[in-house]
Every structure is written in C-alpha cells, then in structure tokens.
Write a structure and sequence with these properties.
The protein has helices spanning 3-18, 35-44, 63-73, 148-155, 160-165, 180-190; strands at 24-29, 54-59, 83-87, 98-102, 113-118, 121-129, 138-142, 175-178. Helix content is 31%, strand content 23%. The strands form two sheets. Strands 3-2-1-4 form a four-stranded parallel β-sheet, covered by helices on one side. Strands 7-6-5-8 form a four-stranded antiparallel β-sheet. With 201 residues, the protein is α/β, with parallel strands linked by helices. It has six helices and eight strands, in the order αβαβαβββββααβα. The radius of gyration is 21 Å and the shape is elongated.
Length: 201
C-alpha cells in the first residue's frame, strides 16, 4: 500500500472528524485503475464510523476503466463497505451531503491556454506545424495579435490585475496559463464542500 495513498486516507478521516463525522461522499476525479482509492479504503477502515457512513463516487467516462476499477474496488465496497457509484460528469453528483474530494493529477491533465506578453500586449501561444526536420513536426508559435482567448481569458478576466500585482509573481510577469475547464470543476467542487473549522475545542 502506497504511503502517499495512506496519508490521503488519513487526511480524509481527519477532515471528516473536524466536520463532526457527518455521512460523507468520497469523490475521486480521474480514478485511473482504482489503485489510489483501494489504498484509501484499506487505510481508513481502521477508523470506526468513517466508511460505514460513506459513499464512494468515481467520475469516469470510460466503460473499460470502470470495469478495471470495479475489479479493484468491488471487494472493498458493497455489503461490508461504502456503496460504489460511477458518474460521467461531476455535476451529476448530488449536492445533498458533505463531500470529500480526491483529484490526484486530475487537474494536471486538463487543457490550458498559454499567453505570452509581447510588444503587442498579451498574445496566445499556439501550436503550429513545423516545416523543418524536427522529430515531432510541431512547434509553439505566438499569435500575431489578440485572439478570442486573449480577450476572454486575460484582458476581460477579473483576476488579471490581481495576477499581475500578486507578490508571489515577479513584477515583470510575461507568461501565464489559464484553464477554464479547471475553473469550472473547481466551482462545482466548491459548492459541495462543507466548511471545516480548525478550532480545537
């Protein structure tokens, strides 16, 4: 059992306890083979009350991968563990109870837009064919002006000024990435997370 997965399981239990031990829904985005969730379930079954009052929901569009996940998680769920559910989309998961999210490397795989600051202002970094003898025959190029994405995601985005002024970035910031798909998922997740008080009573 992976130490990282164990720690994720302990973190889930700790969060659940801080919430007052409510019936919970454990949601994993991009569960892969189901290995991480299997380790989480094994690590958390030593904490009474956690799995007995939990549901496991996997956001997975591939029917093939669902079958592989079932083979790993079926024995850990069901009659002697949490119920197991699959969904094509995050928005299909109800918002009626406390939700604990696991998204290991999920956001890393989502598409992003890239923007480079030039003498023309913010320009989109795009992929073009490479006419040379390069191995992959593709190359990055900077647009010759503002694109629809530049106008929508940089110039009109409410966070542009805050990004430019944030102390964590250099004042001469000249490259940024934006992922609208990630923003959409984060908004969906935030609606399902119950606030946690870290005050020790």
């Amino acid at each position: 059992m992976c130490i990282r997965d164990r720690l994720i399981g302990v973190w889930l239990v700790d969060t659940w306890m801080r919430q007052g031990k409510p019936p919970s829904r454990i949601v994993e985005l991009g569960p892969g083979e189901g290995t991480l969730m299997a380790d989480v379930l094994r690590a958390t079954r030593q904490f009474p009350g956690f799995l007995e009052n939990a549901e496991v929901h996997l956001v997975e569009v591939s029917r093939h991968m669902r079958g592989r996940q079932q083979s790993k998680l079926g024995r850990l769920c069901g009659a002697h563990g949490p119920s197991l559910h699959w969904h094509d989309r995050l928005e299909d998961i109800p918002e009626d109870k406390s939700t604990l999210f696991v998204a290991q490397e999920f956001f890393d795989a989502l598409p992003v837009y890239q923007f480079q600051k030039t003498e023309l202002g913010w320009c989109e970094v795009m992929v073009d064919t490479d006419p040379g003898d390069g191995e992959h025959h593709f190359r990055f190029v900077v647009s010759k002006g503002k694109t629809v994405a530049t106008k929508a995601l940089v110039e009109r985005h409410v966070s542009e000024d805050r990004i430019a002024k944030a102390s964590m970035f250099p004042s001469a910031l000249d490259f940024i990435e934006a992922s609208p798909v990630s923003w959409m998922h984060m908004e969906q997740m935030s609606r399902r997370i119950k606030p946690v008080s870290y005050t020790h009573l």
